[in-house]
Hints:
By secondary structure, the protein is an all-alpha fold. The protein has helices spanning 3-11, 44-50, 73-91, 99-109, 116-127, 132-154, 170-174, 176-200, 206-220, 225-234, 243-262, 264-270, 275-302, 305-308, 314-317, 323-327, 329-345, 352-367, and strands at residues 163-164, 167-168.
Amino acid sequence: MDKLASCFVHHGAPSQTFKLHNLQRRSTSPLSPGRRSVPTVRCAAAHAATATKLSTVDVAVVNGSNDTSSFDFERYLSSKARAVNHALDLALQGLRCPDSLTESMRYSLLAGGKRLRPALAIAACELVGGPPAAALPVACAVEMIHAASLIHDDMPCMDDDDLRRGRPSNHVAFGEPTALLAGDALLALAFDHVAAGCSASSVVPADRALRAVVELAGAAGVSGVAAGQVADMEGEGAVSVGLVGLEYIHVHKTARLVEAAAAAAAGAIVGGGREEEVERVRWYGHVLGMLLQVVDDVLDLTATSEQLGKTAGKDAAAGKATYPRLLGLDGARAYAGELLAKAEAELDGFDGVRAAPLRHLARFMAYRQH
Length: 370
């Protein structure tokens, strides 16, 4: 965990007001259903003039029900990561396939990391009053889909990256054919795991399990990661890709997976959330996924390969459309600030204690340094 994140994790939310550039707060009631729009990014020059840099700004929580200063986010995240790691390890035991395929799957799925997406699923379940155990199959499935997408993303026919999380990418370690099949196998295992896990649970009714599977399928397929990846590749080197095209890519490639599969909809569904609650959390996850990508784009320019655990500067070298390229570095940081405030606004109608993990998770994603 980076130093800045550790600072507000250990000491709680700082007391100063969170000052961001051109924040747009939602004016509807806290749990009103209906689609909302992500803050529109204005011209890069205007942002650059007054941008607040996310790497140095103080974070604050508003008074009252949103006061989460006593919440120990590091402890929460560590406990969820341990539970998910154990469950993932069990899921990969006894697979009836060649050892090389199992090892390739384990290599990527158990490579470590903070398990932010599974924690997001569990936190969303808890937010609507569900028990953490109800979300564990979904949390594992989210990580399986994510690992599969990273394996495929790194391959020579995609982003052609030899490094992932500080280690050789899966196709470098096991060869392209095995890596391709490991990604496919993890994707299939995700659906098997969430269906079997929910059906074996006494707290997740069959209709909720089915809805969770539908959410996962949408996140992984033609309305999600697959569509975003194709648009991403087709946009390489294209000077005509603007903000609309860039947001299409990342809404599908990044935000859709976080929104539907990782925490928002699927976690809230298995937790028994009402329709308006599911929609509220879904939109939180959508905005959070956009925030994740904006910060990734900034770090690709400002961090080293050692800090990132993958090759830095590849997006710029490949001529990809990124937020810093379209908005400037300060403009991208300012937009990330707007997205953070928007994500937190979606939690305002929920119980403050239950919402604490999601508030801290949003800030952690915004202020991370790798």
